[in-house]
Design goal:
The protein has 188 residues and is mainly β. The chain contains one helix and eleven strands. Strands 1-6-7-8-9-10-11-2-3-4-5 form an eleven-stranded antiparallel sheet.
Length: 188
């Protein structure tokens, strides 16, 4: 529960200083590697969503195992092929940049285990109170239900802070595991 509160606090920080706004994201170009896993069964193709308190995640999985689009808990909507996003803040001179690293999905047909690995190579958030820079990795791993409509995962999140004027310890490493349930959405 403590980790969920931490993640929710980070979301509040981002939303409070940058604002919860639609359409404020701008593509960020970055040279990066798109990884593909083995072909996914048809019942896995599509949008998978999870929400716990203020934390939102979604993945649009393609047949070839690539992730066409995702909603990152901190970075918002991103298209891995585009590399990342730039988000304008609601107050002057506030913004955030999120640059994706390799993102991939893998599925084991024998165990029905699906894993999604999201790498955030770099992020920087500038707020009126200071700047936070770092990187992170989120791994979602779990079993897809027999009917193919839900996916119960253990979400392991690791974060490394490069600079953190807003936090007491800039060398802090934040990690944790949270259980989430993703459901397959009707949207494509």
């Amino acid at each position: 529960m403590r980790r969920i509160v931490f993640f929710a606090g980070c979301c509040i920080l981002v939303c409070g200083f940058l604002g919860c706004q639609e359409g404020g994201n701008v593509k960020v170009s970055a040279e990066r590697k798109i990884e593909t896993g083995a072909e996914l069964p048809e019942f896995l193709v599509g949008v998978w969503k999870a929400q716990v308190e203020l934390v939102h995640w979604s993945f649009n999985l393609e047949r070839d195992g690539t992730i066409a689009q995702l909603t990152h808990a901190f970075g918002g909507e991103m298209v891995p092929d585009e590399g990342g996003v730039y988000v304008e803040g609601v107050t002057p001179e506030t913004y955030a940049v999120f640059v994706l690293g390799p993102c991939k999905s893998e599925y084991d047909t024998n165990t029905r285990e699906l894993s999604v690995d999201i790498v955030l190579d770099y992020y920087s958030m500038t707020t009126p109170e200071g700047e936070v820079k770092g990187k992170g990795r989120d791994l979602f791993k779990g079993i897809v239900s027999e009917d193919g409509k839900s996916w119960k995962v253990r979400w392991t999140s690791e974060g490394w802070l490069e600079t953190a004027e807003l936090l007491a310890d800039p060398n802090a490493i934040v990690d944790g595991t949270v259980e989430l349930v993703f459901t397959r959405s009707a949207e494509k």
